[in-house]
Amino acid sequence: MIEARDQSGIMHGALEKVGLPEILDFLSTMSKTGVLLLRNGNVTKTLHFKRGVVVFATSNIPDERFGEMLLREGKITADQFTEASKQITRGKRLGKILVEMQALSPKDLWNEVRHQVQEIAYSVLSWDSGTFQFFEGEERTGENITTSLTVQEILLEGLRRIKNKELLEKVFPSKDIVFERVLPASRPTNLHFEEYEKHVFKLVDSERTVQEICDLSEIGEFETLKTLYIFFSIGYLHVKKRKDKFVEEQKELAEGRQIVRSYNEIYSFLYHYFLREVGPIAENIMEKYLNKLKVDQPELFQRVTLRSNGTLSEERILENLKTISKDRHSTLIRGLNEFIYSILFVIRKTLGEEHERNVLVTLKRTRPDLFEKQNP
Question: Which domains, from first to last, does the chain contain?
């Protein structure tokens, strides 16, 4: 969409279709010189580029004009503003007059011009609608004071200020994206990241999805998405892939099936050992403890039945597993272990500690792999 041009060759488009960070990155990467005109309703702002760097900005919002900004931020008094405004002529700008009045130092003047450009540039990054046009070529702004802001500087601070959740939802309509870290060779040296931003960046490992990073970040989903958007916009992250949820789920369920079968071998052994010692009542006792698990852990054991050989209904456990959104593997292992502990407990309670030791020795000898899985 950035390359759309009208008959005069002017690039233009809608911000709903192409994000402003992408536009700014394009102009920076291509070292463009010209004026980016942005409109949102009655609001009009411009960013002036020189070889890919922002050197000036304008806004038709009164509060963003130079004098009003100085007054609002307490850099000059109302009397100084009024007096300086009276002296403005075609060849004499407000800033020069304020310096002559000693209301501002020359250093303050340059800093405040830079600050004004920054604030205008930051503000447009919160827009989620509007239009853009880029008029390429040198342009005389009539400004003797300009600044030099890299697009990465603007994106870093401007995107930090985003409070619009809907904007991030458009950027991340799906959270199954997997990012990989990429450190640009020509990255600016004046970018300073907060510790929480570095933390989120380190969570990107080319395997975790955006959702998984949000779950791990400790700063909440909104701030995590914003941080990822910042790193992506300044070129520190690339999209590696999107996880196929169906494939991932099938893989996870296949692993779950193997785990259930492994535990069922233990259950069958324990059931037949118990059956040999106490008779048919063994089934009733195991049913009792299974019913307790249905109450304690319904997400995993609801409608699970005990088969005639002492094993649990595999398909029902896997169906329940599908409905668990987080920590499926640990939930499965924890629940299956609980059933083992229950059976071992009743063997010790009913038959004595010697029988429990016999069971454990047999399991260690015949199926050490399964025995290890029952450890907490």
Answer: 11-150 (no CATH), 162-243 (1.10.10), 246-373 (no CATH)
